[in-house]
Amino acid sequence: MIDTLNAVYPHRHNRDGSFDSICRTCFATAAHAKDEAGLAEQERDHRCDPLALAYWESNRLKARAQPKCEARAYRGFNPLMVKAQFKLAISAYAAA
To answer: What are phi and psi of 56, to 5 degrees?
Structure first.
């Protein structure tokens, strides 16, 4: 099996048994194959889309410009959504 921790393109095993290869630069699916060994050739042929790179770069710059807040601790989740999910989990626990 291919080492996915040190790979340039991490691999995702799908429910249907196929594999996807994700580009760490543009976050696109660089390859898709029925078995993990079939990803290598498609990975070599992958070229990042300049528009996708511009999109991710602009979002990275926007995120830097925003003031730091408590929401960062939740990895970008909306604090109100986290609060609602927490209340739902507490009520489900209390009902059990």
So the answer is: -65, -35
